[in-house]
Amino acid sequence: MKTFHWLLLTLVFAGAHAEERGTFTATALPRIGPEDAAIKDLLALYTTPAGEIAYRMETVPTNAPVFDVSFPSPVKSPHAENNTVWCRYFAATTTGKHPAVVMLHHAEGATHLEDFIARKFAGDGLPTLLVQFPYYGKRKPKDKSNAELLEKADMDTLLTILRQGLLDAHRAKDWLRSRSEVDPKRVSILGISLGALAAATIAGVDPDFHRTVLLLGGGDIAAILSSDLPGLQRTRRQYLALAPTVDELRQKLRSVEPLTFAYRVPRGSVLMVNARLDDHIPVACTEKLWKALGEPTILWHDTTHVGMVIHLFDIADLTSAFLGGKPEAPALTTILGTLGGKKK
């Protein structure tokens, strides 16, 4: 009977949303208080006005309610393709108001890992919107002369692209909040690797996310890029070529640095999952972010960055419980007690 119910809902979603067009209300950023005086100029770089934004949603042919969603980016780049934000929406198959998640993906390659987690979340009643970063996938310029645009960009261009990705995540949250099936007060954010760095930053710039999950993230991007770990060699060469010293690189990256905005992330709203043998993110950089976020719950696994995939099922269960839990739900330490891993 449960299988029949799931199939019926899938057919209903597919029929109802073959194509959907509409508008949603985008909220303004930034919100600056007296406590933000030291970084008000950095927050001002994320200025985006409120307004009604058009979106389009189309069914993806699959055996579950999955949709491609697109809407204009709040940042206008020189490349038309990049000015549309493309997302994949994994809808829940249950009725009622649901908590929901904005998901930010890792760098390079396909998003099979994120797709798996998003499908798991949706099956748990946690609709998830996977947001494509600028210049990824459908956002790549069609002109072949721009094939190496990201590799050859100067620092100002790279920073603009990174900030665009963060503002796109903010707008994705507003889209989710507009959905009749979503509880607008319980829209969270989850990021993996590069996505974790971005999620930590936007959660500080925009503290309205309900909860934040950082998988394989850290802080002090300049220290990450200047470390001798093997995982980021190509990226390291690109960024270090744009700044003579690590301190100068750190100064240039302040506007996208998770540590800059960490004090604005609501305490008690964060879960971190990290690898003790991470060959991309130094453990010291993870611990810097952990301390800056008020020492939230952190789960360590004795594996490498890529090796974390062997714990994927446990991590998906844990993060689903954390993001889907109501404020009065059992404490996270209780949830952790039922799963493997090491808690710091």
What report would you give on this structure?
- The protein is of the alpha/beta class and 344 residues long.
- The chain has one domain (2-343): Alpha/Beta hydrolase fold, catalytic domain (Rossmann fold), CATH 3.40.50.
- Helices cover 36% and strands 20% of the residues.
- It has 13 helices and eleven strands.
- The chain has an eleven-stranded mixed beta sheet, with helices on both faces.
- A hairpin with a 6-residue loop joins strand 2 (51-59) and strand 3 (66-72).
- Mean pLDDT is 89; it is low at 1-17, 327-331 and 333-344.
Topology:
Layout: H1 2-16, E1 19-26, H2 40-44, E2 51-59, E3 66-72, E4 84-90, E5 98-104, H3 112-123, E6 128-131, H4 149-152, H5 155-178, E7 182-192, H6 194-205, E8 212-215, H7 221-226, H8 233-240, H9 246-252, H10 258-261, E9 270-275, H11 283-292, E10 297-301, H12 312-324, H13 332-336, E11 342-343
Parallel strand pairs: 5-6, 5-7, 7-8, 8-9, 9-10
Antiparallel strand pairs: 1-2, 2-3, 3-4, 4-6, 10-11
